[in-house]
Specification:
185 residues, 16 strands, 2% helix
């Protein structure tokens, strides 16, 4: 059991038989009385979010998580196949667990899989990924007066807003937390 004061962004805990990951955390100490801890957490298995207020001193069940470094191999329909770098096992994971990261996964990329009771529950990507531009609109000459952007499509199918000077064949760096363009590589 852990104290609710130890719940921070990214902490995983068990509550009422469901596994939650903290998305937002705030601690409020009024002038009198106990402090309150408000969290916003995502149910890892179902995907829905929970907003809950705890009193200082409340406790939740801590969970033991295992982390494995894996390499992304390929996608087959709605299944993503990875290879464990230590055991060479090849777990296949459904697309609903991958979620918005699907457009950022590139074959051969190393990521971290989080397991709970030998069940993959979460994926962690590096903070940035380099992708090649395969489709881009043509920039109009003279559009340099303002900070204009255009939409491009990368090799993984991800669409990103980039500056006008990015062309087909360029490699760009994407921030995996926000899916935003960082720089041309």
């Amino acid at each position: 059991m852990i104290d609710v004061n130890d719940l921070r962004k990214g902490v995983t805990f068990l509550l009422d038989g469901s596994l939650y990951k903290v998305l937002e955390y705030s601690h409020n100490k009024p002038g009198r009385g106990n402090a309150t801890i408000r969290i916003k957490a995502r149910d890892i298995r179902r995907g829905n979010t929970l907003e809950k207020t705890f009193q200082s001193g409340d406790r939740v069940k801590d969970v033991r998580l295992d982390f494995h470094n894996v390499q992304y191999l390929f996608r087959d329909g709605d299944m993503f196949t990875f290879m464990d770098m230590q055991t060479f096992d090849q777990p296949a994971i459904k697309s609903d667990l991958i979620g918005d990261y699907a457009g950022l996964l590139k074959e051969g990329m190393e990521v971290k899989l989080t397991y709970f009771d030998n069940e993959p529950i979460d994926i962690e990507l590096p903070t940035s990924v380099d992708l090649e531009v395969v489709q881009a609109d043509v920039a109009v000459r003279g559009d340099t007066a303002t900070n204009l952007t255009k939409k491009v499509k990368t090799e993984t199918g991800l669409e990103v807003q980039v500056p006008n000077f990015v062309n087909v064949g360029d490699k760009i760096r994407i921030d995996t937390r926000t899916n935003a363009y960082l720089t041309r590589v």
